[in-house]
Specification:
Blueprint: H1 6-9, H2 15-80, H3 83-90, H4 97-113, E1 117-123, E2 129-132, E3 137-139, H5 146-153, E4 165-173, E5 176-185, E6 187-196, H6 198-205, E7 216-218, E8 244-245, E9 261-265, E10 271-275, H7 285-325, H8 329-334, H9 339-378, H10 384-393, E11 401-413, H11 420-437, E12 444-450, E13 453-460, H12 466-484, E14 489-495, E15 499-501, H13 505-524, H14 532-537, H15 546-561, H16 565-582, H17 586-604, H18 611-618, H19 632-652, H20 656-672, H21 680-687, H22 691-702, H23 706-724, H24 729-735, H25 741-752, H26 756-767
Parallel strand pairs: 8-9
Antiparallel strand pairs: 1-2, 1-6, 2-3, 4-5, 5-6, 7-10, 9-10, 11-13, 11-14, 11-15, 12-13
Helix pairs in contact: 2-7, 7-9, 9-10, 11-12, 15-16, 15-17, 16-19, 17-19, 20-21, 20-22, 21-22, 23-25, 23-26
């Protein structure tokens, strides 16, 4: 263990000394601040506890009133759904004396059975007849409480209603308290009203506070619900909210110096008040000091040890690095320098080395990018992560998502033979032309895939329309053809389809090369190649084709399956916007929407759906043969609504279903591998999903193809039979599901390295 050099450590220029005193001062400051904050916090907590206790008393009083109102509301609901009441509300014009008598008797029984009720009314908005808790019927236009009913009906209540629902309201009117309940079946058909006995409620439900102070209750307009007790008639200034203490105030403001009331807002906006006694909301400071001062002293001691430890931890690596990198550190310190000077020198040197490295990387970045693009064109497998890492490493010149199309340019010599140097010179000229045509928004990268062939990868942003893409590609092709007219060869140029992913440019390249070969074939037979303008528009409508829509649908439903409905809806909207930009008319837009609808439905149709989900899925058909009258906007709205249902179904049948399908398929394969007709289609039919979907989830969950799994299983079974039986090789191949001896020998040798006969001999040699 190294000896601690105290003189060097505690010298004034040392980083250790400065760090130690800084940390010590910080620790003491933190302890003092903590002391003051704790003092204030505990005092505030004490005040809040007292205030919370009083507010709880108000909450209990409000709860007793609310429970009573809820009980009355439930009773009203039962009465409203009584067959007599419902029958009258459905047909309010019927004149049945017996029915009227029964309704009045039920209202009379309700009022007489509860001491909290003094009157009951029942009426329908479609009839002026009003029932009350007596044998007499009233006319709503002439009855004594007609202004009460008019005032209630003129109120605008915030809560709406749906079909087959009742809603209840407390209504304070002219010093009287009423409980109204409305029955709505598609629309309002009846109202039941109870007048509550205010004195009974006040005496039975509202307790008195200390010193006889009563709980005061006010409605949402600030008028008292119950008559105040003697001495409690002081008016409340509702405009001065600072005099009211609520639950929300406990953690946001001081409540110890407020003169006013505790306030709790309960049912229907009622406010329950209790006078505030500010003298009980104080906390003695001396008690706080006696209780927590020893702890504060201990914290200061801990801060001292902490400062010493942190200073040593910070200083030790600095000192070690300084002495390793700069052996003459003592000379620097003796000349007035310290550890920081040495580290600055090291940092400056590292910055220079980093700048040199960046220069090297920028110099080879074009070669790295060209190598990656060439690998993509020729079909070499590169993962998305690998491509994105390479793009990030060379400075992100393009994005892996956008519009990608490949122009294939092939030179065919005319007449005389062209030397290699001359070919390279002509290719260099074409590359220079491509560099001039390339722009920062739409870069073009040339990749030499053959001696006389260039693949031009055109990268466009996602927001470019089909018309813009066609025009730009037409200009590029025309420039290439005009430039090639002065060269001693014929330039064949064609393009492939557009793809939204950089990893798919190989498909566009293959399509372009097929068209180039077709042009060469026509030229060799003496026929004229297609006109340039026709070629530039060929496949233009395939910017949105089946493959693109299938890819987008897969991305959308994968988001939905991961319970990311918001991301799925956002991606869905971007796809719909793209369709609207690219479609030439409403019919084409509806065709795109139908294709997308089919792809979304196919992603969930293989799930083991419940009957309800099957019904919902059957209703998700967007533009069928019988709905040609759909407008474009109606079709867009319909696919949005059906997509939400599909997202919910996809999320409910989560990833576990994929594993379940694969496990069932593997079990079926293990039991039927000897069937030579066993295929992905037959296994998919057994499991109940399509072969394409089974192939996709098999690869995702098992990380191998179905064909590899089946071949491996059959080879393993064949190895067992070759080792344990004397059956002929032909018989073993038949029993393991191979359709011919030649196929059996080929597959067996592929997976084991030796043919079946040699494998059997090797096994016998090892056993003998």
């Amino acid at each position: 263990m190294k000896k601690l050099n105290l003189r060097r450590h505690f010298s004034w220029d040392s980083v250790f000394t400065k760090t130690f005193y800084g940390m010590l001062g910080l620790s003491v400051s933190v302890v003092l601040i903590f002391y003051l904050v704790l003092n204030s916090t505990l005092a505030q907590h004490q005040r809040e506890q007292i205030a919370a206790t009083n507010l709880n008393s108000l909450r209990l009083a409000a709860s007793s009133v609310e429970l009573t109102v809820d009980a009355l509301s439930q009773g009203m609901t039962q009465i409203m759904w009584n067959s007599d009441f419902v029958g009258y509300m459905v047909v309010p014009t019927q004149q049945k004396q017996e029915l009227h008598y029964r309704i009045c008797q039920q209202l009379k029984n309700v009022v007489s059975s509860s001491r909290l009720l003094s009157r009951a009314y029942f009426y329908s908005p479609f009839n002026d007849l009003v029932f009350q808790n007596s044998d007499a019927l009233l006319d709503r236009k002439t009855m004594a409480d007609r202004e009460l009913l008019q005032a209630f009906e003129s109120m605008e209540w915030e809560d709406g209603f749906s079909s087959a629902k009742t809603r209840t309201h407390l209504f304070h009117y002219s010093g009287r308290l009423f409980l109204f309940q409305e029955l709505n079946i598609a629309t309002h058909i009846g109202t039941l009203a109870y007048e509550l006995d205010i004195e009974e409620i006040q005496a039975g439900l509202l307790p008195s506070g200390e010193n006889g102070s009563a709980v005061l209750v006010f409605d949402r307009e600030g008028f008292p619900i119950f008559p105040p007790a003697e001495g409690e008639g002081k008016a409340v200034d509702w405009a001065d909210m600072g005099s009211l203490i609520t639950y929300q105030d406990l953690g946001t403001r001081d409540v110890w110096n407020v003169e006013g009331y505790y306030c709790y807002e309960g049912l229907a906006g009622w406010r329950f008040l209790m006078p505030l006694n500010a003298g009980t909301l104080t906390y003695p400071l001396s008690q706080l000091l006696l209780t927590y001062l020893p702890m504060f002293l201990l914290l200061i001691l801990v801060g001292l040890v902490f400062a010493l430890y942190i200073s040593q931890v910070i200083y030790r690596p600095i000192d070690h690095l300084m002495r390793v990198v700069a052996p003459s550190a003592a000379v620097h310190q003796g000349a007035g320098g310290n550890e920081v000077d040495i580290l600055e020198m090291i940092y400056s040197s590292a910055q220079k080395e980093y700048a040199q490295l960046q220069g090297i990387i920028s110099g080879i970045a074009p070669e790295i990018l060209e190598s990656m693009l060439k690998n993509l064109l020729v079909g070499k497998h590169l993962t998305r992560e690998r491509v994105e890492d390479i793009l990030h490493g060379v400075g992100d010149p393009i994005s892996a998502r956008g519009r990608f199309c490949v122009l294939a340019c092939q030179m065919v010599p005319q007449g005389r033979r062209i030397e290699d140097a001359e070919v390279n010179l002509y290719l260099l000229a074409i590359r220079k032309l491509v560099q001039r045509l390339s722009t920062p928004e739409c870069p073009i990268y040339d990749v030499r895939t053959d001696v006389l062939t260039l693949g031009l990868i055109c990268c466009f942003p996602e927001d470019r329309t089909l018309t813009q893409l066609s025009q730009e590609l037409r200009q590029i092709q025309q420039s290439l053809r005009l430039h090639a007219e002065a060269m001693p060869f014929r330039l064949f140029c064609a393009r492939g389809k557009f793809y939204p992913d950089l990893l798919d440019v190989r498909y566009s390249y293959h399509e372009a090369m097929e068209r180039v070969q077709y042009q060469r074939y026509l030229h060799s037979t003496g026929e004229n190649a297609p006109a340039p303008q026709d070629e530039s528009l060929e496949g233009g409508g395939l910017v949105i084709d089946q493959a693109l829509i299938q890819s987008r649908a897969k991305d959308i439903m994968e988001q939905a399956a991961d319970n990311a409905a918001a991301q799925a809806e956002s991606l869905m909207e971007r796809v719909l916007e793209e369709f609207q930009r690219q479609a030439r008319d409403e019919q084409e837009l509806k065709r795109y929407l139908q294709m997308l609808q089919d792809q979304l439905t196919e992603r969930v149709i293989t799930y083991p759906l419940s009957q309800e989900d099957q019904r919902i899925l059957s209703e998700c058909s967007l533009i069928s043969a019988g709905s040609r009258t759909f407008s474009a906007q109606e079709a867009l709205e319909a696919i949005r609504q059906s997509a939400k249902a599909l997202f919910r179904i996809s999320a409910s049948y989560s990833q576990k279903n994929r594993y379940k399908y694969v496990e069932q398929a593997k079990q079926y394969v293990d039991e039927n591998y000897m069937d030579s007709n066993l295929s992905l289609n037959s296994v998919g039919d057994f499991v109940g999903i399509s072969a394409s979907y089974l192939s996709e989830i098999w690869s995702e969950t098992s990380h191998e193809k179905f064909s590899v799994y089946l071949a491996t299983l059959r080879v393993e079974k064949a190895q067992q039979l070759l080792t344990t039986t004397k059956l002929a090789i032909k018989e073993i191949g038949f029993r393991c599901g191979f359709n011919s001896v030649q196929n059996f020998i080929r597959v067996f040798k592929k997976y084991t390295g030796v043919p079946p006969g040699q494998f059997r001999e090797n096994q016998r040699g090892q056993m003998g």
